[in-house]
TrEMBL record:
Source organism phylogeny: Bacteria, Pseudomonadati, Pseudomonadota, Betaproteobacteria, Burkholderiales
Entries under PANTHER family matching the protein: PROTEASE SYNTHASE AND SPORULATION PROTEIN PAI 2
A family per Pfam: FMN_bind_2
Organism name: Hylemonella gracilis
Protein's recorded name: FMN-binding negative transcriptional regulator
Alphabetized SUPFAM superfamilies for the sequence: FMN-binding split barrel
Entries under InterPro entries matching the protein: Split_barrel_FMN-bd, TR_PAI2-type
Length: 211
């Protein structure tokens, strides 16, 4: 993605935080005609702190009728994108009038190598990780379901591991315009949930404007 230096973040912990807080990602591959094919889905991130460079893998699954898994099988290299809070920014936050509106946003792009997970126990473990992210209490209910029903559900999905080979993080919050930070943060803090999310990230990055 277009990544001007003032918006590029090299802090891996910020990228991982954004991915955890906004796990509904876009998985982008090429189909058999060479066109982009996109599936929107939740992904679970797993970091291996023992691996050199702290390897990161993303776990997910698609419905078996979705051809995306076949594209991953044929062409394992793909892209995963995450989008955090985003919102319009009025030029009224600037002390001078010769400014224009903009749109601020937070995004992470991951280049990945896909491996399909076909073993039933491994797929079951993957599902439990996803359930644990969003509704841990359901895990006990899933374990209590009829085994035949569980097998039917597992047979209806194709799971995969996406090994991250490159990561880009873009935090576009007008970092290069400190004269607008105080007014920008106040406007976002009083706004909708996306705007409030941007205000929280401004706090996280220490973008408060001149003292």
């Amino acid at each position: 993605m277009y990544l001007p230096p003032q918006f590029r973040s090299e802090d891996r912990s910020l990228a991982l935080a954004l991915m955890r807080e906004h796990p509904f990602a876009s998985l982008i591959s090429t189909d058999d005609e060479g066109l982009p094919y996109v599936t929107h889905l939740p992904l679970h991130g797993v970091s291996d702190t023992q691996a050199e460079g702290e390897a990161l893998c993303l776990l997910g699954h698609v419905a078996k009728p979705n051809p995306h898994w076949r594209y991953l099988q044929a062409r394992p290299r793909a892209l995963v994108t995450y989008l955090g809070p985003h919102a319009y920014m009025s030029p009224q936050v600037y002390p001078d009038e010769q400014r224009v509106p903009t749109w601020n946003y937070l995004a992470v792009h991951c280049t990945v190598e896909a491996t399909l997970i076909e073993d039933a126990e491994a797929k079951d473990a993957l599902l439990k990780r996803l359930i644990g992210d969003h509704e841990p209490a359901y895990a006990a209910r899933w374990r209590g379901l009829d085994p035949d029903f569980q097998r039917k559900m597992l047979n209806g999905i194709v799971a995969f591991e996406l090994r991250v080979t490159a990561l880009q993080c873009k935090l576009k919050l007008n970092q290069h315009r400190p004269e607008a930070h105080a007014a920008m943060r106040a406007a976002y803090a009083a706004g909708n949930p996306d705007e409030q999310g941007l205000a929280a990230w401004m706090d996280r990055l220490g973008l408060h404007g001149p003292a």
